[in-house]
Structure formats: structure tokens, C-alpha cells
Design brief:
single chain, mainly beta, 2 domains, 6-stranded antiparallel sheet, 3-stranded antiparallel sheet, 15 strands
Length: 163
Amino acid sequence: MTLVVKDRVKETSTTTGTGTLTLAGAVAGFQSFSVIGDSNTTFYTIVFGTDWEVGIGTYTSSGTTLSRTTILESSNSGSALNLGAGDKDVFCTYPAEKAVYAQADDKVIAPSGVVTGALFENPTTIATNYTVATGNNALTAGPITVNSGVSVTVPSGSRWVVL
């Protein structure tokens, strides 16, 4: 299962409840979720009236469905929407909490998780001070140099900045 992000993917659904969505086909001018590929995951948004949900879903070509694998944010206090009767818009998105981006001063911000050397030039110093938690112990030092093929695990809830 690969994470796939594509442009201009939007379909409708009349699915109700909190489960897997059955997709009803592409909206005019957009691609269908089939471009994601069978069994692949993608970032999605559901909009139903003023309610919304952003998450990671798994597309299945048989039945043309999108499972709501992980809810990232929603207008329902971060929980899955309990969808009522009617048309919903479902589309690919790039959630802010998963985004890697450059600020106006060109510092790169990455969410907590694994940052790989492929993201940076080889070698590149990515911080002058850092904390790496290991079990109940923590190591503080700097600078960190990331070489190609090396992963750095960023502690949950923190963000790293390229200086």
C-alpha cells in the first residue's frame, strides 16, 4: 500500500454513516479516485454541508470505495463524520499537519515523524541544537548532519527547521 497524491481528484458519494465511502464517479473537470490505484492510500477531504473531514483513506477499485483509514481532522472534534443522506464531495487534499513547506525566509518545516536524507542536500546540517528521545533517556547536542539514505526520527509533537 503506497501513499499516492494526485491533482484534481474529486468525486461524489451518497454513503451514510461513519464507514467506507462508495464513490459515485468523477465530478465534471476532475479525475476519479481510480488514478490513486487499487489498494493505495491517499489524503482525502469529505465535505457535507458545513461539515468536513480530512484523513488518510485506502482506495479499492472493486466497488470503487474509499475507506476512512485515519481521521486527521474534522468538524466533529477530530472524529469521523456520521454522514446523513445527501450528496457529499470527496476529494484529494494535502493536509497541513502532513505538509513539508518552506517559510517566507526559506526555512523548511517538517511535521514530526521520519525525515530522510533525500529531503536535504548531502550532507546538510539540519539543526544546531536538537533533542533525540530514546526510551526514557534524551540526548541533546548539535549539529546534526544528514547523509543520503540516513533517517532521523523526529519526536512526536515537535517540528524540525532547516537552518
